[in-house]
Automatic annotation (TrEMBL):
Residues 300-387 form the UDP-glucose/GDP-mannose dehydrogenase C-terminal domain. InterPro entries: 6-PGluconate_DH-like_C_sf (IPR008927), 6PGD_dom2 (IPR013328), G3P_DH_NAD-dep (IPR006168), NAD(P)-bd_dom_sf (IPR036291), UDP-Glc/GDP-Man (IPR017476), UDP-Glc/GDP-Man_DH_C (IPR014027), UDP-Glc/GDP-Man_DH_C_sf (IPR036220), UDP-Glc/GDP-Man_DH_dimer (IPR014026). It catalyses: UDP-alpha-D-glucose + 2 NAD(+) + H2O = UDP-alpha-D-glucuronate + 2 NADH + 3 H(+). Signal peptide: none annotated. Its EC number is 1.1.1.22. Belongs to the UDP-glucose/GDP-mannose dehydrogenase family. The lineage of its organism: Bacteria, Bacillati, Actinomycetota, Actinomycetes, Propionibacteriales. Keywords: NAD, Oxidoreductase. This is UDP-glucose 6-dehydrogenase. It comes from Ammonicoccus fulvus. Pathway: Nucleotide-sugar biosynthesis; UDP-alpha-D-glucuronate biosynthesis; UDP-alpha-D-glucuronate from UDP-alpha-D-glucose: step 1/1. PANTHER family: UDP-GLUCOSE 6-DEHYDROGENASE, UDP-GLUCOSE 6-DEHYDROGENASE TUAD.
């Protein structure tokens, strides 16, 4: 088959590499630098498995910035473009997805487009009316940043909407590429598949928020958070996973997906979804005030990324804490190798780690690192278990 994948972020890049093992895949992105890296066999995102596959596997993968050029002969067009949450409209900005679908409809009628971007409930039904000349499926992704290809090779489930020959064929592509023999495959309605994605991520956000609020309580009362979580997790219904306290849930997916689900609840009674969204702000307030109470002269931010092995710091919770601290007039400096600029939101970016350590009397680290072991007495972190889950 010939498959076009549009959008070379985590979802698109992992999908392209996964399917290029057995099929002809054309990767499309408007960013010429990303396309140049892919053409040179390098991954434009941080994902060890993707980098390894590009370097060592025989992949039928080409890359271009020209979607129209890539479309002839395509059996499937996978849409994996960004859909950031727009606080003004209280909905995802789906303009990039719509633009791709329009281009496909105009230049390759009869093609099947598979949306993998996260979208609001009801979006697929709407674009099917707008672009009746193409088949439009929705297949949510359940990938972790930094482990996107791994999660495609070992999928927790494959969900495709709606039932039909095209959906079955696409699900077959994903199942064929899986290294597991027993991956559950679920065919649903389009709105149901959209809801699966939003409710799944909101549940994960709720779990993060729960253990963070447990930690806030323990810290406020001088209790040992680790002991409490260890005891709670021994209940097999709860388990010892996704329980490491943090500065709040962040990254690209959870903040926007929880807000989108909340927006979808308009005119539907609820309190829990709102509480999950509010809890993340409350956690940032607690962390910021706890740091401020230490009367620091200079606060250092060690890495903006939310988790180890990721190069993404969009909507990372540490940025919200940074803003709260700066609002109190406390100088903040950053160490973030991913930043080339000298400043980030009017805070100095220090390139040298040793200089960074010496300049700060409190260093915020969402996740502890061996790089900070020599200044452990300066480090403020809620990381108890040394991992992201």
């Amino acid at each position: 088959m010939r498959i076009v994948v549009v959008g070379m972020g985590y979802v698109g890049m992992a999908s392209a590499v996964l399917l290029a093992q057995r099929h002809e895949v054309v990767a499309v992105d408007i960013n010429a630098d990303r396309i140049a890296q892919i053409s040179a066999g390098r991954s434009p995102i941080v994902d060890p498995d993707i980098s390894d596959f590009l370097a060592t596997k025989q992949l039928n993968l080409t890359a271009t910035t020209d979607l129209v050029e890539a479309l002839p002969g395509a059996d499937f067009v996978i849409v994996a473009t960004p859909t950031d949450y727009d606080p003004d409209t209280q909905f995802f900005n789906t303009s990039t997805v719509e633009a791709v679908l329009r281009t496909v409809a105009e230049n390759a009628p009869g093609t099947t487009a598979v949306v993998k971007s996260t979208i609001p409930v009801g979006f697929t039904a709407g674009v099917r009316e707008d672009f009746p000349g193409i088949t439009i499926l929705f297949s949510p992704e359940f990938l972790r940043e930094g482990r996107a290809l791994h999660d495609n090779l070992h999928p927790s489930r494959i969900v495709v909407a709606d039932p039909g020959p095209e959906a079955e064929a696409f699900a077959g592509l994903l199942a064929e590429a899986s290294l597991d023999d027993d991956t559950p495959v679920l065919f649903t309605g389009a709105a149901e598949a959209e809801a699966v994605k939003l409710f799944a991520n909101t549940f994960l956000a709720m779990r993060v928020a729960y253990f963070n609020e447990l930690d806030t309580y323990a810290a406020t009362h001088g209790l040992d958070t680790r002991q409490i979580i260890s005891g709670v997790g021994l209940d097999p219904r709860i388990g010892h996973f996704y329980n490491n306290p943090s500065f709040g849930y962040g990254g690209y997916c959870l903040p926007k997906d929880t807000k989108q689900l909340l927006a979808n609840y308009q005119n539907v009674p609820q309190t829990l979804i709102q509480a999950i969204v509010d809890s993340n702000s409350t956690r940032k307030d607690f962390i910021a005030f706890d740091v401020i109470d230490r009367n620091p002269k200079v606060v250092g931010i060690y890495r903006l990324a939310m988790k180890a092995g990721s190069d993404n710091f969009r909507a990372s919770s540490i940025q919200g804490i940074m803003k709260r601290i700066k609002a109190k007039g406390i100088p903040v400096v950053l160490f973030e190798p991913l930043l080339e600029e000298a400043e980030f939101y009017r805070s100095e970016v220090i390139k040298d780690l040793d200089e960074f350590k010496s300049r700060c009397d409190v260093i915020l680290a969402n996740r502890m690192s061996d790089e900070l072991s020599d200044v452990a007495d300066k480090v403020y972190t809620r990381d108890l278990f040394g991992g992201d889950s």
